[in-house]
Each structure stands twice: as C-alpha cells, then as structure tokens.
Specification:
The protein is an alpha+beta fold and 339 residues long. It contains eleven helices and twelve strands. The chain has helices spanning 33-41, 62-80, 89-96, 146-156, 159-171, 176-185, 192-201, 209-220, 268-284, 300-312, 317-331; strands at residues 25-27, 45-49, 52-55, 86-87, 107-111, 123-127, 135-138, 141-144, 227-234, 237-245, 250-254, 288-292. It has a four-stranded mixed sheet. A three-stranded antiparallel sheet has the order 1-3-2.
C-alpha cells in the first residue's frame, strides 16, 4: 500500500487521542476459497468488502456496532488499496479516534488521480491535490491532519454531527489557528459558511457527543450561548453541571445510560441515589435542571423550548424558597431535612 503521507508529510502531535482498534482483517488472497467459505459458514468470519473479511464480534449496541463496521471497512481499504491515498472526512475522524454520530457506512479517501477500475460504491474517492502539510500518518494509517479532518467534516456533515467531531478534536488539543487558516483558503468552497458556524460553536468543554448535540439544539434555536462544565458549590461539595447559564442558575444535564449503569463500579441503585442527592444539593443552591436523553435528541426543538421556559423563569427562585422555608422551620422549632 502506498499513501500520500509519504515524503513531506507531517506528524500531528495529538497524544490525548486513542490509537485505532486492533482489528483482524483477513484477505481472501491469504487463504483458500474453501477455507474462507467454511469460516463464513461457521460464523467465524463475515465479509467486509470484496476480498476482505473480519472476525465476528460480540453483540454490541447500535452505535458501537456501526463504528466497528466503519472501522472494519477502513482497515480493509488500508490493507487492499495499492494507489497513493489518505483517509479523509468521517473516516479520518474515526482514524483519529474522534467521536462521531450517524455514520454513513462509507469510507472516504483522498487521492490525486481518478481510479481506472470499477469503484466500490461504499468508498468515496475525493480526487484532489492534497498539500503535504494537510496529510499525516496516525498509527500507521495515512490520514488528513486533525485540522483538515475537522474542516472537511464541518463542510460536509450536518451541523450537529460536525460539532460532535469538532468538540472532540478541541478536547484533544486542536489548534484553532490551523482551522482558521484552512477555512480562509477554502473561501468559496461548498459548505464553508456552515463550517464557520460549526467552528464558532466548538467548545472543548463538551465532554460527550450527547452534550455536543444538546448544545447544538440550544444554539440553533437562538438561545444564549451556555457555559460548559459549570462548577457549583453545594453543601455536599462542588458539582459540575454539563451545560448551564450561571447568572440564571439554569443547567442542562445530558443523561446517558452510563451514569446509572454501574459502569464505574457502583450499583445501579447506588448510582441513582447518588444522582438524586446531587440534584437536591444543586436545587438547594437555586439551580433548575433540564435533563436530556438520547430519546429527547430526536426532537431538538422540544429541548430548546424546555430550556427557554426555564430561562424565562425567575432566577434563583428555588434558592429563595428553600432559604425561606428553612428559616420558617427554625423559627417554629422544627428540624428541616437537608438543612
């Protein structure tokens, strides 16, 4: 396999990004046709693309399964292609280990010449002369640089999906000046206007894809730009609200299943109880919280409408109510729970 990221390519210093998964791709040329058929019949292998197979994986959720399938195709293309190329767009995002949602299932590559053979419909070939400073190698995979990957995704993906990629890259140390230079050179290119919006909304404080998608829904509805990872001091210690408007004491929390699944050594019941105590402590400080789930993200306008209603409400009303209630209770000689 030859790659565009040969002589003159640069190495991106991104130590915070994970290495690619270790996938076992089996090329048909490495075994007899009979052996391949037998392994497929036994569910030991499944076909990725013509001439390439992968070992069967354990049952996974839909999101992880889609990411694994995309990675298998990347690994197969990497093993099979003999022309100079680099991975690009959402495929490059996966090579870099960036978060990505709603994967298309297609593998994107950049090459400098048009192919002379019949194309694989699931391989998107972008025929451009990619400058050396915009290509690199990451763990052996030829790929567009982190900045070029983010710009390509911002120009071609829906805005919310592009923000997921950009937020993750920002957390990994993406240089905004590199992105700015690329956007300046791409002036007039299709998708650049939308890409500028994505990059303006990028925030390294967005810790998960769900938080990025939620922020996009809020900003796309015209709500004021919120802070991310807002610290709040409470009687139980300092807690961090995923997204919030500090002056209004309104927070938005994205609730994935991990928070209550015992994934960090706690039981589900214990995790739910701890989260309940956390929310009570935040509400005692006057914070009003909107909780968002993956199901809610199917109707982003509803999320924005619910947040807008909280923002229109009186600031710190909960804090004032709780303070007055505790004061009245003490005057009457009653002990208030959580005081």
């Amino acid at each position: 396999m030859q790659a565009l990221a040969g002589q003159g390519a640069v190495m991106d210093p991104t130590p915070t990004l994970p290495p690619p998964p270790d996938l076992d791709v089996v090329l048909a040329a490495s075994r007899t046709a009979r052996a391949i058929r037998r392994s497929v019949a036994r569910d030991e292998l499944h076909r990725i693309r013509r001439g390439a197979y992968a070992t069967q994986a354990a049952a996974e959720g839909a999101g992880r399964a889609a990411r694994r399938r995309a990675w298998e195709r990347i690994a197969a293309v990497h093993a099979q292609l003999r022309i100079p190329f680099v991975f690009s767009h959402e495929s490059a995002a996966l090579v870099w280990g960036l978060d990505a949602v709603r994967l298309s299932g297609r593998t994107h590559i950049v090459q400098s010449s048009r192919p002379s053979t019949r194309n694989d419909p699931l391989v998107v070939r972008h025929v451009v002369d990619l400058p050396a400073e915009q290509r690199t190698v990451w763990h052996g995979f030829p790929v567009t640089t982190l900045a070029r990957t983010v710009v390509d995704c911002a120009c071609t993906l829906p805005g919310d999906a592009a923000l997921v990629v950009a937020d993750c890259a920002a957390r990994a140390g993406l240089d905004p000046e590199d992105v700015g230079r690329l956007l300046s050179r791409a002036r007039g290119r299709r998708g650049v206007v939308g890409a500028r919006t994505v990059l303006e909304r990028t925030d390294p404080g967005a810790a998960t894809p769900g938080e990025s998608l939620t922020r996009w829904a809020l900003l796309d509805a015209g709500l004021p730009r919120p802070e991310t990872q807002v610290p709040v001091a409470t009687r139980l210690g300092s807690f961090v609200v995923d997204i919030g408007w500090r002056e209004r004491r309104v927070g938005v929390e994205f609730d994935g299943q991990v928070k209550y699944s015992g994934a960090f050594g706690d039981t589900s019941t214990g995790a739910v109880f701890a989260e309940k105590r956390r929310q009570d402590a935040l509400e005692e400080r006057g914070w009003r919280l909107l909780r968002v789930t993956w199901q809610d993200l199917r109707t982003p306008a509803d999320i924005a409408a619910r947040a807008a209603r909280l923002l229109r409400g009186p600031a710190s009303s909960a804090l004032g109510c709780r303070t007055r209630c505790r004061t009245r209770g003490r005057r009457r000689g009653r002990v208030q729970l959580g005081a």
